[in-house]
Specification:
The complex is a heterodimer. By secondary structure, chain A is mainly α. The N terminus of chain A is likely disordered. A two-stranded antiparallel ribbon of chain A has the order 1-2. Chain A is 53% helix and 5% strand. By secondary structure, chain B is an all-alpha fold. Chain B is 78% helix and 0% strand. Chain B is elongated and about 115 Å long. Chain B starts with a helix and ends with a helix. The model of chain B has no long low-confidence stretch (mean pLDDT 76). The chains are: A mainly alpha, B mainly alpha.
């Protein structure tokens, strides 16, 4: 394949992208990757907020606050922020930042939008899937609807929200051979 | 003198006049008959589908010197008499088209000659394109098109690339495509362990299916 305009050619999209999976239940890797991305985002934002508080305190009082990971208030604040982050975005449009990046979306089990109450329920049930030694996530691998324990409890599913086939066509259009062109008019010298 | 000689002379004198008269009468009669026949009414009474089913289309087409026939026909006059919409309503277009080797037929036809004879604008003006298109299964046609080859080898690809370019979308596509590939690999691996066939990701949920159908 020749790249248009001499662009570097990225890896070829896998054959899986020949079909559009939009609306189909999302698999383990996409969901896990989205969760990791969310952890990075919410931890980063939390640390920024702590740094801003520390900065403000040092200006106002002349003393810096030493936030420690084992500090109970830091842990409580982190958990509260995590709760707000997930509940807000799942209730807003079913998509957190990680979900948007990896193209997954939370819906109700019949395909509808997630209400605020259901989003809160899902966020509260989410730790249960971890607390039973991660067995709550087995449903994603083995279930027909790829639902984890917190999905079953909250009545939700996670689906692909992006069109893999459209992405493949975009890839082909950008990095494929252009159609042969007729010779143009002669260019004036210089 | 031969007694029949006079009769022969008379016959030879009258024969050309009689032939000319007979020719004139025949032409007049044919003209009157053609004018009197309502082609639309005749076509309306014919079950064209039944006729088409009984005809070995390929064999008949092979026997005809199409270009010679078409050169002798005044297509515009013929088409002016026909109610094309009524004819098209009667015909099951899919069936005869399926039976005809269109490529073989088109190889034999001098399309330029036909196009020069036909007033295309007038013909198109008479056809109810909406009604025709309503009967064509566009999805079936679209499925027969190799979209990927079209995008890959034509300037359509460049148009799409221009309309959807962006480093961010490229990055998203790459990341998502990669993780979907891993999803599929994991799912196939799990299905193999469970000795079940894997045919792709399950779903979508019933509500989404209904939205997609509507």
């Amino acid at each position: 394949m020749t790249a248009r305009g001499g662009e570097a050619i990225p890896v070829k999209p896998p054959a899986a992208a020949r079909d559009s999976f939009q609306g189909h239940y999302a698999g383990f890797a996409s969901r896990f990757a989205a969760f990791v991305a969310d952890l990075v985002v919410l931890t980063g934002v939390f640390m920024l907020v702590l740094a801003a508080i520390n900065f403000a305190a040092s200006i106002l009082t002349g003393k810096s606050i030493d936030f420690n990971r084992s500090d109970t208030w830091v842990v409580i604040g982190y958990l509260a922020w995590g709760f707000v982050y997930f509940a807000h975005f799942w209730g807003l449009n079913g998509r957190t930042a990680g979900g948007a990046l990896f193209g997954v979306q939370v819906l109700t089990d019949d395909g509808g939008d997630v209400s605020g109450r259901r989003a809160i329920g899902r966020t509260l049930a989410f730790p249960l899937s971890f607390l039973i030694l991660g067995l709550g996530f087995l449903g994603i691998l083995l279930g027909d609807q790829r639902r984890a324990l917190h999905d079953v409890l909250a009545g939700t599913v996670v689906v692909y929200s992006w069109d893999a086939r459209a992405a493949r066509l975009r890839f082909l259009s950008r990095y494929s051979s252009p159609a042969p062109r007729l010779p143009g008019p002669p260019q004036p010298p210089g | 003198m031969d007694p029949l000689a006079r009769l022969r002379a008379v016959r030879e004198r009258l024969a050309p006049q009689m032939e000319a008269t007979a020719q004139a009468i025949a032409e007049r009669v044919i003209t009157l008959v053609v004018d009197a026949v309502d082609l639309n009414a005749v076509l309306a009474r014919v079950d064209l589908n039944a006729v088409l089913r009984r005809v070995n289309v390929e064999e008949e087409i092979d026997r005809i010197q199409i270009n010679e026939v078409l050169a002798r026909v005044d297509l515009n006059a013929l088409l002016a008499q026909v109610d094309l919409n009524a004819v098209l309503r009667q015909v099951d277009l899919e069936e005869p088209i399926d039976r005809v080797d269109l490529n073989g037929l088109l190889d034999r036809v001098d399309v330029n000659q036909i196009v020069q004879q036909v007033d295309v604008n007038e013909m198109i003006a008479k056809v109810d394109l909406d009604a025709v298109l309503d009967r064509v299964d566009m999805n079936a046609i679209a499925q027969r098109i190799d979209v990927e080859a079209l995008v890959e080898h034509t300037d359509l690809g460049a148009v799409i690339a221009r309309s959807s370019s962006g480093i961010a979308s490229d990055m998203f596509d790459a990341v998502r495509t990669r993780t979907v590939g891993i999803d599929e690999a994991i799912a196939r691996w799990v299905a193999r362990l469970r000795r079940r066939p894997y045919t792709g990701p399950p779903g979508p949920p019933a509500g989404l299916r209904a939205v997609a159908r509507s």
